[in-house]
Amino acid sequence: MRRGRRHFVNSRPTPKGRRLRLGVSSCLLGERVRYDGGHKRDDYVAQTLNKYFDLVPLCPEVAIGLGVPRAPIHLVGNVSHPHAVRVHGPAVDVTAQLKRYGRRMARAERDLSGYIFKSRSPSCGLVRVPVRTPKGPRCGRGIYAAAVLEALPLLPAEEEGRLGDPRVRDNFIERVLAYRRWRDFEASGITAARLRAFHAAHKLALLVHGPGHYRALGRIVARAQRGEIKNLSQAYGRRFMAALQSPATRERHTRALTMAAKTLEPRLGGRDRTELLAAIRAYRTGKASRGTPLTLLRRHLRRFPHPELARQAYLNPDPLELKLCAGQRR
């Protein structure tokens, strides 16, 4: 039986220009670390994302020394606080080891910008992980995944299975990039004025996820002007990342695009104005991709600079978002 090496990739601040780092369940990259000696290689993760991110392979079951091959484990007990025990042979409980490794990983890899977990795994699953309870089968969360996200609650996380949905995939990439912007913002020193500027720059990005989120975050910013900056900035970060998990809709994208168009409208000639509004209508009715009006808006902004719109993250997406998000092309 092969014994697992307990390893962490060294965590350093990400230098400018260096690729962002994602934690990934090792089996999704084709590593033969599963209990039966197999893997669960996922092409989108192993091929597509590997072109743009530094992927950090992590397998908690191997890391705590269970080896390959090994007796499988499953979750039993209270669905909110299950235990991970060996399925066959003497009952061996590895709950504490998995939690401890999750906390250690979170400390060692604080520079991760996101994490892709293996679905339905008793250690790594995020949702719908089978739990055997006294009242019958229930669904819970893997022990290791729960420990990681308890230590890093803002970290964007997804399962490989859900990434097959283009909308989930786009949302994950959006959250990864937004999380990195927030972490960089925190690292550069938060003041009330800078928090206000960050909020203003994400106005359109937040509105497409729901205007209620933008207003709630605005109230936090207003309170921060009175000097409670440290705690309120943490509250802002939590609410900001939670807001981005709310699904964006075509209707709200249309409103955001229209808002930007109306801001620029006085500077545009009749032909440009007609073309832009027609592109937004075509997107609203599903006849054109969102990328069409966005491209026009960015082109007009280069010709007619507008300070407020120029700072909008929504109108100036990261190059990775343009490459990886189908929504930019839908």
TrEMBL record:
<feature type="domain" description="DUF1722">
    <location>
        <begin position="203"/>
        <end position="319"/>
    </location>
</feature>
<dbReference type="InterPro" id="IPR013560">
    <property type="entry name" value="DUF1722"/>
</dbReference>
<dbReference type="Pfam" id="PF08349">
    <property type="entry name" value="DUF1722"/>
</dbReference>
<protein>
    <recommendedName>
        <fullName>DUF1722 domain-containing protein</fullName>
    </recommendedName>
</protein>
<dbReference type="Pfam" id="PF04463">
    <property type="entry name" value="2-thiour_desulf"/>
</dbReference>
<dbReference type="InterPro" id="IPR007553">
    <property type="entry name" value="2-thiour_desulf"/>
</dbReference>
